[in-house]
Design a protein that fits this description.
The protein has helices at residues 2-12, 43-48, and strands at residues 17-24, 31-38. With 50 residues, the protein is of the alpha+beta class.
């Protein structure tokens, strides 16, 4: 059953991209990772924003 679910997710999510951005905390200075799933057209703008 898991294989069937994965196959259906792959066909419906061809137009999505997972982007991971490293963000520095202003309080501690430590880096954290922010993940987001979005359309490929908006990835560049999301990565450029703070």
């Amino acid at each position: 059953m898991a294989k069937k679910t994965v196959a259906s997710l792959q066909t419906s999510s061809k137009r999505l991209t997972k982007a991971i951005k490293m963000v520095r905390s202003p309080k501690t200075g430590a880096y954290t990772f922010v993940e987001s799933v979005m359309a490929p057209e908006v990835v560049k703008g999301w990565l450029d924003s703070k």
